[in-house]
Design a protein that fits this description.
By secondary structure, the protein is α/β, with parallel strands linked by helices. 27% of the residues lie in helices and 27% in strands. It contains twelve helices and 26 strands. The relative contact order is 0.14.
């Protein structure tokens, strides 16, 4: 159970208010007492010092004041009762870091185990390269699936995993156990650490990219194809390293919190293409890029107008043109247009393709389409009108080169720059009880008792010492 106060500063008034009640009570005029003689009064005073009675009226007044102030502070008690629960376990590459003993993943399993054991109806989502969903079932029956979870050498789609868990068990709170918080979850248990890690985040022909998550700069040795290169990577940053190898094989020397990103490899192979039609400039460019003809074809080039949706990625060149126009705007989200600038250049206008899935790639000022794209293809003006444009070789390179490149290793900067600790976000309480009304009612009841027993005269205290001394003289 957790106790919280809506207005905790009200509690600061508790000592002065109780002191004020005590002062007011003590300064009231004492009741008159008739005694037979002064010697009897002195005798009663001496006996009172030896045995002092409890002042119940004062205690009731102090208790009522304390209960009233507690009610004004608006307290609430939260109870976390076992109930339906969705547990999302992060198994991304950073969870293999050993800066938390024995690893972030094992710590996450321990945290998730206690929640699952108490839940009468639970869903377990293991978030990794491919999310796995187990349940709904009694929580303790999912412990074997929890123990079998292992680190995925990639990132994790935490938002997608949370959505899958909600669909499997609607209206249940979602607890994310991870080193990376997500606002989509109702609660989060953070298992991140502060370990230092250096890893390979990029590798290409003649280039190696490094990242450092540590609090200070890293100075060490990187081995590329058996040759050592000194490197220095700034804290929380990146550093590129140029190497004289077309197909580098990289290894970072030394140990750190994460070993999955200490290696990387790049290789390039010839891409299999096919060309249907006569395009001498295109043929020469494909030869320079090292492509080969063979099956199965990875990329097709064809002279003609698209007749529908292509079955494989095909680049079409229009056989004729219908005038010319200057490119006013172009689609910039396509990866193969990176570095291929078309805006401002004059292009021939190709005939319109057939099929519903072709979209404008480049348009002129009057919105006339000069080039088209498809999820599985590209439709351009005639090749002979493009061969002298600077964008033409860049475009063909962007289409061909990625298909022949092979990379291995983690190569994920977000995982290499290990997530750092963040505050836990507890799940919303199962039951919340607002105590202010009950405390106010109790304060009123205590005041009622004081009124009933003391001001109405129903309280009959024990006889005073003076009364026990005997009857007054002359009675």
């Amino acid at each position: 159970m957790q106790l919280a106060f809506g207005l905790p500063w009200v509690l600061l008034a508790l000592p002065p208010v109780l002191g004020l009640v005590w002062w007011w009570y003590r300064r009231r005029r004492p009741p008159e007492r008739k005694i037979a003689g002064l010697w009897l009064w002195q005798k009663a005073q001496r006996k009172g010092r030896a045995r002092r009675r409890v002042d119940w009226r004062l205690l009731l007044l102090l208790l009522a004041a304390a209960l009233g102030l507690l009610a004004l502070s608006n307290p609430r008690a939260s109870l976390d009762l076992p109930g339906a629960l969705v547990v999302v376990l992060d198994t991304s590459a950073s969870m293999a870091a050993t800066d938390v003993a024995p690893s972030r993943l094992e710590q996450a399993k321990e945290q998730a185990r206690g929640r699952l054991e108490r839940s009468p109806n639970a869903v377990l989502v293991v978030a990794g390269r491919q999310n796995q969903v187990f349940g709904p079932a009694i929580g303790r029956t999912l412990l074997d699936e929890l123990d079998a979870a292992f680190v995925s050498p990639s990132g994790a789609d935490l938002e997608g995993a949370i959505a899958q868990g909600r669909r499997r068990l609607p209206n249940a709170p979602v607890l994310l156990v991870s080193d990376t918080p997500s606002p989509a979850a109702d609660g989060h248990v953070n298992v991140a650490g502060n370990g230092q890690n250096v890893g390979v985040t990029a590798v290409s022909s003649g280039f190696v990219g490094l990242a450092n998550s540590g609090p200070g700069p890293w100075r060490g040795t990187v081995t590329v194809n058996g040759r050592n290169f000194p490197a220095e990577v700034p804290s929380g940053g990146y550093r590129g390293l140029e190497v004289p190898f077309a197909n580098p094989n990289v290894r970072i020397q030394g140990g750190d919190a994460l070993s999955l990103d200490n290696t990387g490899q790049f290789s390039r192979r010839p891409v299999r293409v096919s060309v249907n039609g006569s395009a001498p400039a295109l043929e020469r460019l494909l030869g320079l890029l090292g492509t080969v003809r063979g099956a199965p074809t990875e990329l097709a080039f064809e002279i003609g107008v698209p007749g529908g949706d292509p079955g494989r990625f095909t680049v079409y060149f229009a056989p004729r043109a219908e005038g010319q126009a200057v490119v006013f705007d172009a689609e910039r989200t396509l990866p193969y247009l990176r570095g291929a600038e078309l805006v401002g250049y004059r292009l021939s206008v190709p005939p319109r393709p057939s099929g519903p899935n072709w979209r404008p790639l480049a348009v002129d000022e009057s919105a006339r389409v000069l080039a088209w794209y498809h999820p599985n293809g590209l439709y351009l003006p005639p090749a002979q009108t493009l061969q002298d444009l600077p964008a033409f070789p860049v475009l063909v390179f962007n289409l061909v080169a990625p298909r022949g490149e092979t990379r291995s290793g983690l190569l994920t900067p977000a995982e290499t720059l290990l997530p750092r600790p963040a505050p836990d976000v507890p799940l919303p309480p199962t039951l919340t009880v607002w105590l202010a009304p009950w405390l106010a009612l109790l304060a009123v009841a205590v005041l009622g008792l004081e009124l009933l027993f003391f001001q109405r005269g129903l309280w009959r205290p024990a006889s005073s010492d003076a009364a026990r001394a005997g009857p007054p003289v002359g009675a």
